[in-house]
Amino acid sequence: MPTGTSDVLLRTEGRAGIITLNRPRAINALTHAMVRAVDGALTDWEHDPAVTTVVIEGAGERGLCAGGDIRAIHDDARAGGSASAAFWRDEYRLNARISRYPKPYVALMDGIVMGGGVGVSAHGSVRIVTERSRVAMPETGIGFVPDVGGTHLLGRAPGELGTHLALTGAHAGAADAILTGLADACVPSAELPALARDLTRLPADEALARHVVAPPAGVLAEQREWIDACYSAPTVEEIVERLFDTGVPAAKETAETLLGRSPAALKATLATLRRSRALTTLEEVLDLEYRVSCAALSTPDLVEGIRAQVVDKDRDPHWTPATLAEVTEADVARYFDAPADGDLGLAAASGAGAAAGTAAGSATVPAADPGARAGA
Description:
The chain is of the alpha/beta class. Helix content is 45%, strand content 11%.
């Protein structure tokens, strides 16, 4: 049986295998050892007939997972090391595995769910948010680009809602996460323990039917008109210009938010998102994102962004280049060069089987909202 580590608690109860990310002081930020522990549990439970459902949750009150351990990435980037690329290789493989896991994989996305936290939850077959959920891919604020399959998910959101979330890093609450395809259904936070207990003794769809409710109202549906009109522009510069010109206060605030993000990361994010839309499978997108992530590791903005937001916490990053106009097409093209140590190669390794998705592991999610989907 899987045993986990102090940072990943693993147990079986009834018919469920339960993964608890256990770094509450760090909002359960993922380390390389944690990724390996989760992957090991999935291996063991995949072949255990007593386990029919896998559940992932976060310890503490703040959230499921705030992302990867970006302090470690900061230190590795400053040293010119290879630890981050090795971490991403295993993390992205785990993300792909979750997406095609043959048993229901239920993610309890309570509280903060960002970056790598989206990767270990939003590719699952059953994604549950609560009234406390704050789901986001905030990478442009630290000079990075959405990864862990984030551009696959956001690239398939209705209209340009995913582009808005990818460039700004804005948080999506329960209704907006469901609308954009990052989650399936809402369960009140106070009922999650009861849901978890029901998952240990009932099939996932029966357990969920007892607890799903309509989510609190979101904001993206009513903002869709100006978001679609502005973010359909061909460049980040024109997106910002359109946002300022709408006359809508929320759009103007969004433009000002974008002007505070890394210019290079914004342009690389838009290019990655649009390339990902042309790809068919998650594995193909993860291969693309691996190239972009490795390239970002050698840019000055990643180290500077993490310094400003997490290390020194002065919230005053000095980006290089400093403006959108100074980021050239060649600068963006370099994000898509093959890494020195080689590509990830997930699509080639998985073949047609990965494209089949998670049909065997899907559960029908009782939809209290018409945006909820069935399965993954």
